[in-house]
Design brief:
alpha+beta; 4-stranded antiparallel β-sheet; globular
């Protein structure tokens, strides 16, 4: 799955990167990204089953792309903005009606996973790298998860890519938007806060719109 995510997103992003920076930049970026990805992938710890197993599969790709943009002289902000756009290109390959129809089922499943994850956490069954959370059921439509330890933050640090955060934290808004779920958050570990205070709604809405900034919706 990790290789599929990397390869598919690269293919979907080729035109965007070539139009923005030119063909030679794309060729250099593609070469560097493959090199970094192949070097990073074998060193990524296997944390096993996790509430955020799917998110974790993006880690090696995010780090590879981030390092490659830096190698090519881009700033941190521009590297993050490009990774946002690459994610958009990847996720919008799936028809919007399909994403919306699957959104409620996904969030329902995620709610159940969150409860089980917290139970496993209390029993000391999680990999040391894994996310640690506090789960709260609010009502039929809403639940909250406070993330107090983040595997992506640990992974980025291990590969000297701390600057990935809080940029990649914002991906939650993109995925919630395309799935038609409600999502809000005012704190993240990546921003230096004590937790990521995530609030999810089965029926709701979520604005992606990175051009509007992330000051009050970290």
């Amino acid at each position: 799955m990790k290789k599929l995510i990397f390869g598919f997103t690269m293919a979907r992003s080729r035109s965007f990167i070539r139009e923005k920076y030119g063909s030679e930049f794309w060729k250099s970026f593609r070469t560097l990204a493959k090199m970094h990805f192949n070097n990073i992938l074998p060193k990524v710890p296997d944390i096993g089953y996790s509430i955020f197993s799917f998110n974790y599969k993006f880690g090696a790709s995010y780090i590879a792309w981030y390092k490659s943009f830096f190698d090519l002289g881009l700033s941190q902000d521009e590297a993050i903005e490009n990774i946002w756009k690459m994610n958009e290109k990847m996720v919008t390959a799936i028809p919007s009606p399909l994403m919306h129809s699957s959104g409620k089922a996904y969030i329902n499943s995620f709610r159940k996973k969150a409860k089980r994850h917290e139970e496993r956490q209390k029993r000391g069954e999680l990999h040391p790298y894994d996310w640690k959370v506090v789960f709260r059921d609010i009502d039929k439509n809403t639940f909250e998860i406070d993330i107090i330890e983040c595997a992506m933050k640990k992974l980025a640090h291990d590969f000297n890519a701390d600057g990935l955060l809080p940029g990649i934290c914002r991906m939650d808004y993109l995925f919630s938007s395309v799935m038609g779920n409600g999502f809000t958050r005012t704190k993240t570990l990546g921003d230096g806060d004590d937790c990521c205070n995530c609030r999810y709604e089965l029926e709701g809405s979520c604005e992606w719109a990175p051009e509007n900034g992330f000051i009050y919706r970290k």
